[in-house]
Specification:
The longest helix has 11 residues. This protein starts with 8 loop residues before the first strand and ends in a 6-residue tail after the last strand. It is α+β, with helices and mostly antiparallel strands. The protein has one domain: Roll (2,3-Dihydroxybiphenyl 1,2-Dioxygenase, domain 1), CATH 3.10.180.
């Protein structure tokens, strides 16, 4: 197995300026570094980094590409919608959102929203790392 020093979530975007505006203004990320290849952002309160880069393939994935772990999903939904973000509403067998939040069979709460390119982002109170 190779040794991992750290990791970075990387998302393709079609318009780097529009994406910077969304991730800094609506999600509260700070720009760490920026060059012709893309933008490195710090994710607030996490100590983690997110990289966005221009690509003609932006937004083509129809599954969740990034999940943010939060303490209270309903509170996070309120904060996100206050910035103009629209939460996704799903009604699938075994998964239904109400007011932007789904309760999974194991009790976890999850909400989904999209960035300007249609990348699907999630907020969750999961305990995967505990």
């Amino acid at each position: 197995m190779f040794k991992v020093k750290s990791y970075t979530a990387t998302l393709a975007v079609s318009d780097i300026d529009r994406a910077k505006e969304f991730y800094t203004t609506q999600l509260g990320c700070d720009i760490i570094n920026e060059d012709d290849n893309g933008v490195a952002l710090s994710v607030p309160g996490s100590g983690e980094m997110l990289a966005i880069y221009p690509s003609s393939f932006a937004g083509t994935n129809q599954a969740t590409v990034l999940s943010f772990r939060v303490e209270d999903v309903a509170e996070a939904v309120r904060a996100l919608t206050a910035t103009g973000i629209t939460m996704e509403e799903y009604d699938f067998p075994g998964l239904k959102t109400e007011n932007g939040v789904a309760t999974l069979p194991d009790g976890q709460h999850v909400g989904w929203f999209k960035d300007p390119d249609g990348n699907i982002l999630a907020i969750s109170d999961n305990n995967w790392s505990e």
